[in-house]
Design the sequence.
């Protein structure tokens, strides 16, 4: 499955199948959250949160791809990611784009 952030595929004839999306909501456990809070005092990368968001992006992307595959798509164009806080210790990652099928 080809994923791209461009809005169209120049030189390729395709039909638009529709919007596809995948999302996940992730949170860290109390002990990791406490440790990351201490790290916030002294500065530096919050690796526990970085890992959490990498996992969330990968999971949201895979869910988007799975939806596109079920529609018979060959590619997803215009791929975007967005995040939002759901509650104090939880974040949603949403991946979305347009599923297309080559002609």
Sequence:
């Amino acid at each position: 499955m080809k994923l791209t952030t461009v809005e169209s595929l120049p030189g390729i004839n395709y039909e638009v199948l529709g919007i596809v999306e995948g999302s996940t909501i992730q949170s860290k456990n109390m002990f990791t959250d406490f440790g990351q809070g201490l790290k916030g005092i002294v500065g530096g990368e919050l690796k526990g949160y970085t890992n959490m968001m990498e996992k969330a992006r990968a999971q949201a992307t895979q869910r988007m791809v799975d939806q596109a595959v079920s529609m018979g798509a060959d590619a997803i164009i215009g791929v975007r990611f967005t995040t939002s806080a759901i509650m104090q210790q939880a974040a949603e990652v949403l991946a979305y784009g347009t599923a297309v099928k080559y002609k």
User: Anything to note?
Assistant: The beta strands are 2-3, 14-27, 75-87, 90-102. The chain has a mean pLDDT of 88. DSSP finds two helices and four strands in the chain.
